[in-house]
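User: tokens in, sequence out, please.
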């Protein structure tokens, strides 16, 4: 049980005993607490009991950390462990990357209680420098090409990237520098990649969330991020999309592709669904009678875990989306093709309920679809576009057709219409300007004049 020492009328010291070490020395943890001066004697006693019980529970569960002696790196490790069971796998992986590559390298050595608002402001200034990329010089590429095999210090993936002239991070550039016994500047050209406003805000939010937990766990008293505005960074350009002619060219080019890719791409354009949501569809989710699909799960690749199946991004992402008759017809053809493949392969066909599978019934790897899409666009000399931009193609078509924001938000599975407005504001604004011309056409057709 915790012991309580009264230091003054409004402060106490709580001590929790943890037994003895192998030398017979008593192990204990102590912490001082200040009490609100406005509390009545009865309220003060209740607060003392609450604080002592909470502190004892933290110590005995191993969650008590002292902000004066705990480094940011150590606490960040504990915080990530705590979050691993509470966050979606993809979100947790994103957080882990932010901490490992941005936050820990900057704050890791500092004691948690010593990190103040001015430290956060200094960090904001260095965010661009943290994203330096190293582009291999021609001499390095020639040297690597002449080797019979890649050096032991360099992985096969890195070796291939360097041969292709692709950029690498500082850690990899350092390893290459050691392997060739040459300074980094002799082997690489440095490039500063300015972070987008969205990325910088994500980094700030992750840091603030970590500090907020430290406050809740009584490790520190104040979250320093609360006194600092999130960095602005570089504003992201308007979302990419195809114009009408390019969309028609892409649909025409799809005619020569395997049916599974024709259906998958057409369904993405038709519904605006995310790739993970499409890859997670079962045939039972397809309503052929009413031309609709129900989205209730997603199947996606998570670094370090492989392919995982989980609920969609938000509660609003669980939805039923109407599908055009043309795409429903494609889905019927695709289902027939799968039935024929099962008959041909017999026992060699893997039974699977997913809509999108390989000819032998094996599940399609989500990343494989993105790679196919890049090569597909290249083969047909179509402009470069990410797979996720097909979602924007859908939104562009619907907005230009006059769909309202609430309906669009529901179809796309956004948590609220403000998300939709934020992403597609430029498209909606462009459409809104057309309304003035439409009103003018109405006045002209009716030969109406407005007094001026």
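Assistant: Sequence out:
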């Amino acid at each position: 049980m915790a012991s309580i020492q009264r230091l003054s009328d409004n402060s106490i010291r709580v001590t929790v005993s943890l037994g003895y070490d192998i030398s017979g020395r008593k192990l204990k943890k102590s912490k001082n607490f200040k009490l609100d001066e406005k509390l009545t004697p009865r309220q003060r006693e209740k607060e003392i009991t609450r604080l002592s019980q909470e502190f004892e529970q933290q110590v005995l569960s191993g969650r008590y950390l002292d902000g004066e002696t705990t480094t940011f790196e150590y606490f960040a490790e504990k915080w990530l462990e705590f979050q691993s069971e509470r966050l979606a796998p993809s979100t947790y992986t994103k957080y882990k990357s932010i901490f490992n590559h941005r936050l820990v390298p900057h704050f890791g050595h500092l004691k948690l209680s010593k990190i103040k608002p001015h430290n956060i402001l200094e960090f904001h200034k260095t965010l661009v420098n943290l994203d330096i990329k190293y582009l291999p010089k021609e001499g390095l590429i020639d040297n690597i090409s002449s080797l019979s095999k890649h050096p032991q210090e360099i992985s096969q993936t890195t070796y291939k990237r360097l041969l292709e002239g692709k950029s690498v991070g500082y850690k990899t550039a350092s390893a290459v520098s050691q392997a060739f016994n040459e300074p980094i500047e002799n082997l690489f050209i440095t490039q500063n990649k300015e972070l987008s406003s969205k990325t910088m805000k994500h980094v700030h939010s992750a840091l603030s969330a970590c500090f907020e937990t430290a406050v809740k766990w009584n490790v520190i008293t104040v979250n320093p991020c609360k006194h600092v505005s999130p960095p602005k960074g570089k504003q992201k350009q308007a979302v990419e999309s195809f114009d009408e002619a390019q969309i028609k060219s892409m649909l025409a080019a799809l005619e020569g592709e395997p049916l599974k890719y024709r259906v998958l791409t057409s369904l993405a354009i038709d519904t605006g669904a995310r790739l993970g949501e499409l890859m997670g569809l079962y045939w039972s989710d397809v309503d052929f009678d009413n031309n609709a699909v129900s989205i209730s799960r997603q199947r996606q690749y998570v670094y370090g875990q492989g392919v995982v199946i989980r609920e969609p991004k938000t509660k609003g992402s669980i939805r039923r989306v109407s599908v055009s008759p043309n795409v429903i017809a494609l889905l019927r053809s695709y289902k027939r093709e799968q039935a024929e493949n099962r008959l041909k392969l017999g026992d060699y066909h893997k039974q699977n309920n997913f809509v999108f599978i390989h000819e032998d019934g094996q599940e399609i790897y989500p990343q494989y679809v993105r790679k196919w899409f890049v090569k597909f666009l290249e083969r047909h000399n179509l402009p470069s576009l990410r797979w996720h931009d097909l979602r924007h193609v859908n939104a562009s078509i619907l907005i230009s057709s006059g769909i309202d924001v609430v309906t669009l938000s529901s179809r796309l599975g956004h948590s609220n219409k403000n998300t939709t407005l934020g992403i597609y504001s430029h498209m909606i604004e462009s459409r809104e300007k057309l309304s003035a011309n439409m009103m003018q056409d109405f006045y002209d057709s009716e030969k109406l004049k407005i007094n001026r």
